[in-house]
Amino acid sequence: RTFLLTPPFHPLAGQEFEQVKQRHTCDEERVYFHDRAGRLRAAPLGWTSLAPPDPFVVMAAGGSLFRVADLLELTRLVALWKP
């Protein structure tokens, strides 16, 4: 079973890999694969074409770049950095 890495910021974005296994670790589902050098790598399922479509992304249909939950989390993290 093959998949693409989908986040545009990832150095391997758009490349196709063969899934070695999939398992739940560190509170998330991860997909394991061998990179071009043969090293075993892992990526969150949500960063692959194997993930089901995100309902927010489907409903936004390009109208929004960020989910509200993600923006709220970003606000929380930025607040931690403030002196």
- Tell me the strand percentage band: 25-35%
Which secondary-structure class do the elements indicate?
A: alpha+beta
Q: Which strand order does the major sheet show?
A: 1-2-3-4
Contiguous runs where pLDDT drops below 50 for at least 5 residues: none
Question: Count of helical segments?
Answer: 2
**What is the total tally of β strands?**
4
Helix content: 10-25%
Q: What is the C-alpha radius of gyration, as a whole number of Å?
A: 15 Å
Distance from N terminus to C terminus (CA atoms, Å) equals 48 Å
N-to-C series of helices and strands: EEEEHH
Shape descriptor: globular
pLDDT averaged over residues: 89
The main sheet comes to:
4 strands, antiparallel
Oligomer category? single chain
Describe this structure in words.
Helices cover 24% and strands 30% of the residues. The protein has helices at 55-60, 68-81, and strands at 2-4, 16-25, 28-34, 40-44. A 4-stranded antiparallel sheet has the order 1-2-3-4, with no helix packed on it. β3 and β4 form a beta hairpin. The termini are far apart. The model has no long low-confidence stretch (mean pLDDT 89).
